[in-house]
Amino acid sequence: MARHLQREIERLKKKILALGAIVEDNLRQAFAAIESRDADAARQVILADLIIDENEVEVEEECLKLLALYQPVAVDLRYIVAVIKINNELERIGDLGANVAERAAQLAQTEPIVVPAKLLLMAERVESMLQRALDALVRSDPTLARLVLAADDEVDELYPELIDEMKAEIRRHLDRLDALVLLFAVARYLERLADHTTNIAEDVLYMAEGEITRHQTPAAIFSLESHQFDS
After folding, report:
1. Which of 2, 61, 76, 104 might form a disulfide with 33, Cβ 3.0–4.6 angstroms?
2. Going by C-beta distance under 8 Å and a sequence separation of 6 or more, which residues neighbour residue 121?
3. pLDDT band with cut points at 50, 70 and 90 for residue 49
4. Residues 6+ apart with CB under 8 A from 80
5. 173: how many CB neighbours lie within 10 A of its CB?
6. Whether the predicted pLDDT of 227 surpasses 50
7. What is the reported pLDDT for 217?
8. Which residue has the higher pLDDT, 130 or 174?
9. Which domain holds residue 20?
10. Sign of the Cα pseudo-torsion (162, 167, 171, 174, in order)
11. How far apart are alpha carbons 90 and 16 in whole angstroms?
């Protein structure tokens, strides 16, 4: 029974990692479509979200089947529960990637506008966070997961600065209002993407260490880790 469960868990691991790879690539393409004003590329991202949705359902069904058939405990149970939660976060990230792509397609129909450097920087940080979170999942690496939590603070600091810059840009260029409103929406999506990626990192910490770290600050989590090492 235990051998069968481990084989099924390995299959589940491959499925969640494959889903993560699709989501990561789709998000990268969505960000690229914003900068390039490529409506066709944006539409491909939107279509690919349907594949993400299908895979998300398959992973959830697989998790429920394992819980029902094998009644796992301890580490195995923790892994399956974490995968259920991470699966949900990846689906939401996929939806937000599609939302970014929709704004990119709309942006392509407006007058050309320079995308703010801080927005591109936020997109780069979010992309890096997701990559690290998925790497942490692959390796069950709590240290990488904690780096994702710390990076979320940087995104949170960038967001109000970006909004202030865009408000000032609107006051100077009312003729570009349509495009700037679309970029406002993208900025908001980026903040939410960072939050969902942080949730994945927290789920990896739960999977690796068995502790629920939600609602703790990254500083508190690193402090707790240092205390554990000292003892």
Report:
1. 104
2. 158
3. very high
4. 9, 12, 63, 66, 67, 72
5. 12
6. no
7. 58
8. 130
9. 2-230
10. positive
11. 9
CA-CA distance, 177 to 98, in Å (whole number)? 22
Amino acid (one-letter) located at 86: I
Which residue is it, tokens 């301890």? Answer: 74
Nearest partner of 9 among 73, 80, 81, 59, judged by Cα: 80
User: What would the two tokens of residue 220 be?
Assistant: 């508190």
Q: Exposed, middle or buried, 201 (CB in 10 Å: 0-12/13-18/19+)?
A: buried
Residue linked to tokens 């690193």:
222
Amino acid identity for residue 62 in this structure: E
- C-alpha span between 42 and 98 (Å, rounded): 8
Number of residues assigned to the chain: 231
Total-model pTM: 0.90
Structural domain total, the chain: 1
**What amino acid is encoded at 73 in this protein?**
V
- Interatomic CA distance for residues 148 and 126, integer angstroms: 9
